[in-house]
Amino acid sequence: MSTSTREPLARILLPSRGEPADVRMLYLIEMEQNKDRLRWDNRTSVAIPAGAEVSFETYFNAFPAAYWRRWSQLRSVFLTLEVQGRATLSFYRSKQDGQRISISHEEVTTGHHEFELELRNFEDGGWLWFDVTADEDTVLADAAWCAPAAPAAQVLPDGSELAPQPKRVAVGIPTFNRPADAVAALQALQSDPFVDEIIDYVLMPDQGTAHPADHPGYAEAVEHFGERFREFRQGNLGGSGGYSRIMFEALENTESPYILYMDDDIAIEPDSIYRAVQVARYAAKPIVVGGQMLNLQERSQLRTTGEQVNRKDFMWGAAPHAVYDHDFAKYPLRAIGTPQTHIDPRNYDSRALHRRVDVEYNGWWMCLFPRVVAETIGQPLPLFIKWDDTEYSLRAAAHGFPTVTWPGAAIWHMAWADKDDAIDWQAYFHLRNRLIVAALYHEGDPGGIFRSIFRSTLKHVMCMEYSTIAIQIEAMEDFLAGPDQLFDILETSLPRIAEIRKEYSDAVVIESADQLPPATGAPGVPTRNVGGRLGKVKKIPWLLKSVKHLVTKQDPAHHEAPQLNLTPEEARWFTLSRVDSATVSTAGGTGVAFRKRDRNLAWELMSESVELQQTIEKDFDQLREKYRAALPELTSRESWRKVFDAQ
C-alpha cells in the first residue's frame, strides 16, 4: 500500500487480467475520446497516457458515501494515492437522484497525495468518486478510500460500549459435492496478500461425498493457510448446518472478532472481504454486513440492492427503493437520463442506484457477523436450507443489531432465475421454513400468508406440478408437528422428500425431449405472455378456458406423447392449464420433465393441501407460542454441539 499511515477502507482496484469489457465497467470507465488505452500490470497501479481521461464512478471504486454516513462513525473520508507524472483529479458527489455535484479539481504531480472529503451531504443517498485527466503520462498507484482515524468504541444495544476490534476475520465456506468450486474459493482467498493478511482462519465444513481434499489444488491451498485452515467432515445438514458449524467453531475455538460466511459456488472480489470487515469495525454500533450479489453468468449485472420480508404475506421482496438486475455495462452510475427521458417511465436509467436502501436481511452468499452478535443471539435455526439467513437477521434486529447490504462489497453467484428451487425438492423447505419464521416473527392476522399459499397451490395444479404440492403437504405436516422435532429431522428430511418426489412424473428429469415421441401440438393454446397495463384483463378469457379444461377428464393418448415442448419461460399457467401434457426444460437446460395432467390426482392433492392450510391458519396463534418458546433451545450452542458430536 501507499506510504500513508491512514487506514484503508476500500482500495481503488483495476480489473483482473483478461476480464471482458463489460466486467471492466465495474472498475473504471475509459472515455471514448481517449487516443490510447490505459495499461496496468497489477490491480493497484494504472498508467494513464497523456491526454487520456478515466472515471472511477464505478461499482467497485466509487465510495458509497450515503451508507458510511448512515451507519459509520465517520464524518469524512480521505482519498490517498501515489502519483508519478502530472494529472488533474476532479472530485464529484451525487445526490440521491444521481445528480452530479462537482466538489473540486486538484492538480497532482509526482508524490504522495491526500484529500479529505466530507460525508455530510449524503442523508438519503449518493456516492463520492473522482475522475482523472492525465496532463502527461501518469501512473496512479495504491489509491484508497481511507479513514481519518482509528475506529472508536461501538455502542451496544444496552447502552454499554464495545472496544474497537482488531482487523481480523474467520472466513467460513460450507461445501457439498462441489470440490472444484471449494478449491477455487480457497485459491481466491489467498490470491490477494493484502486481504489474506487479515484472515485469521478459513473454516470449511465438508458435508458431501465428493471431497475438496481429493481435488487438484487442495493440498497447495491448505499448505498456504497452514494452521489457519480447518476442515470439518459431517453429514449433510444443509446450509444451516454448515453455517452453524462455522459459527460454532469460530466462537468455541477462535478469537476472531468477525465471522464471514461465503458460499462455495461463487466468484469473489477478495477486497470485498476486507471492505466488509472495515465497515463492521467503523460502524457506530455492531451491524450485520451483507455483501451484494452480482450475477455469475452476466457478470456486469447486480442482482439486487436489498430485500425485506413483506408482512402482508410474509414473503421475500424488494426493500423500498431497491433495484433488481441492474447491468452496469449498459447503465453505469452516471447514466441517470435527462428531464425528457424521465417523463416516460419505460426509460430505464441508474438514478435509483444512488438512493440508499435499508434492508431487513442479506443472503448468506456473503455475510459478515461481529462476534458480539453471534454471542448475543445464538446459532442459526436448524432449517437445512431456505429462510435461515432471513430469520437470523430478523432475530438480530430484535436484539438491536440491524443488517446492512453494502454496495461495493460483493460476490458473483448464480442468479435465482436460473434455478428451479420453487418447484423442486427445495419447495418443501421454502414452505416449511417460511411458516416457521412467520410463526416466530409475524404479528397480527396471518390471513395474507395463507391466501398467498393458496394461490401458489392453485398455480401448481394448473402447471401439473403435482410433486411440488405433495412435498408442500409434507412441509405443512412437519410444521404442525412443532419445533421439538426440527433437530431430529435435520438430516432425514431431504431423503424423505426425494422418495416422495420419485412417485411423480413431473419430478423425473429426462435427458432430452428427443427421447420421447414428437410433440403432437395444442392449437390455440398461448405460449407467450401478455404484458402491459391491461395484461391481467387480457388473461381473463384464458383463465376461463383453463378452468373448463381442468375439470374435464384427461386424454390418455397425451400421456404417451407430449402435446408441447416448452422452455422454462414458456411454462406458464395459462399454457400448461390448457393441455394434458408437456415437457418443460429445467432452468439449467440439463434435461426436461414430462408433465402429465391427472384430474383425480390434482383434486386429491389440492383438497389435502387446502385442508392443512385451513388447519394451520386456525391454530396459528398456538403454533406461534410453541415456536417462540422453543427458539432459545433451537438456537443454543449446546443443542448444536449435540448435533456435531453425533457426526
UniProtKB/TrEMBL annotation:
<dbReference type="Pfam" id="PF13641">
    <property type="entry name" value="Glyco_tranf_2_3"/>
</dbReference>
<dbReference type="Pfam" id="PF19320">
    <property type="entry name" value="GlfT2_domain3"/>
</dbReference>
<feature type="domain" description="Galactofuranosyltransferase GlfT2 N-terminal">
    <location>
        <begin position="9"/>
        <end position="148"/>
    </location>
</feature>
<dbReference type="InterPro" id="IPR045699">
    <property type="entry name" value="GlfT2_C"/>
</dbReference>
<dbReference type="InterPro" id="IPR040492">
    <property type="entry name" value="GlfT2_N"/>
</dbReference>
<feature type="domain" description="Galactofuranosyltransferase-2 C-terminal">
    <location>
        <begin position="449"/>
        <end position="645"/>
    </location>
</feature>
<dbReference type="InterPro" id="IPR029044">
    <property type="entry name" value="Nucleotide-diphossugar_trans"/>
</dbReference>
<comment type="pathway">
    <text>Cell wall biogenesis; cell wall polysaccharide biosynthesis.</text>
</comment>
<comment type="similarity">
    <text>Belongs to the glycosyltransferase 2 family.</text>
</comment>
<dbReference type="GO" id="GO:0016757">
    <property type="term" value="F:glycosyltransferase activity"/>
</dbReference>
<protein>
    <submittedName>
        <fullName>Glycosyltransferase</fullName>
    </submittedName>
</protein>
<dbReference type="Pfam" id="PF17994">
    <property type="entry name" value="Glft2_N"/>
</dbReference>
<keyword id="KW-0808">Transferase</keyword>
<keyword id="KW-0328">Glycosyltransferase</keyword>
